[in-house]
Specification:
single chain, binds adenosine-5'-triphosphate, three-stranded antiparallel sheet, 8 helices
Length: 228
């Protein structure tokens, strides 16, 4: 298969806190068109490594680059090309679902923001709560709003930490297919997951984070690891 351009590169990357290494070293290149999963047990260091790969946390050793640049989430260029959904809830209490999505769509200059908003409302099955405020949503609906906000905007790299969390099984399946389609439309995706079915459908490769190490493997090995 012909590879697209390198979107994310990690070289000898060791992630951790202060002097304490949690996992690594990781050497990997993620190209446009690829979905890199990150799997491993609770506390292994997946989220720490993911944050370090995108510059949200300082590396203990080694380097990460996004689109050939040092990752910097305060740079406008980085923010225009990288869509990130980590394990956090971030809402404006006074904006409805539709208003949130409209804000993101307009903020990123989408040519037809209203149509894009309605498409995401349909995809994430949020129509009955489109005019509801975040505190009127279920936890799964709030997660869908954050996912819709991550997908609605343009990006070259999509970064997701356990995107399946709080979703029902059917929606997990739809999400996995959407992630795979997204990569095929010339983006790279890096995502932490605990869901074997999501990994099987979406990932083209994976990193197993385990025992302080980080090893790049094929999707089947990663899926077996989640299932074991
Ligand atoms: N802010 C922090 N300061 C110090 N250590 C931390 C901090 N956050 C997490 N850790 C530790 O780093 C290790 C890795 O945590 P991390 O959240 O990266 O794991 P994970 O693989 O993503 O786990 P999970 O599957 O449970 O989400 C854990 O031992 C955790 O206790």
């Amino acid at each position: 298969m012909k590879l697209g351009k390198a979107v994310l590169t990690a070289e000898n990357l060791v992630a951790g806190y202060g002097e304490h290494a949690v996992c690594g070293p990781l050497d990997v290149e993620v190209f446009s068109g690829q979905v890199l999963g990150m799997v491993g047990e609770n506390g292994a260091g997946k989220s720490t490594l993911l944050r370090t790969m995108i510059g949200a946390q300082a590396a203990i050793e080694g380097d990460a680059q996004v689109l050939g640049l040092m990752p910097d989430d305060r740079s406008a260029l980085f923010r225009s090309k990288v869509s990130v959904l980590l394990d956090e809830d971030a809402y404006f209490d006074s904006l409805t679902v539709r208003e949130h999505l409209s804000l993101v769509a307009r903020g990123h200059g989408l040519p037809n923001p209203d149509a894009a908003v309605e498409d995401e409302i349909d995809f994430f099955e949020l129509r009955t709560v489109a005019d509801a405020f975040p505190d009127q949503l279920s936890s799964g609906q709030r997660r869908k709003l954050l996912l819709a906000s991550a997908f609605i905007r343009p990006f070259e790299l999509l970064v997701l930490d356990e995107p399946e969390q709080r979703l029902d099984t059917r929606m997990r399946g739809l999400l996995a297919q959407r992630i795979a389609r997204t990569a095929k439309k010339n983006a790279a995706v890096v995502m932490v997951t605990h869901d074997a079915d999501v990994a099987q459908v979406a990932c083209t490769r994976a990193v197993i984070v385990d025992d302080g190490g980080a090893q790049v493997v094929g999707t089947d090995e990663a899926v077996a690891r989640i299932r074991r």
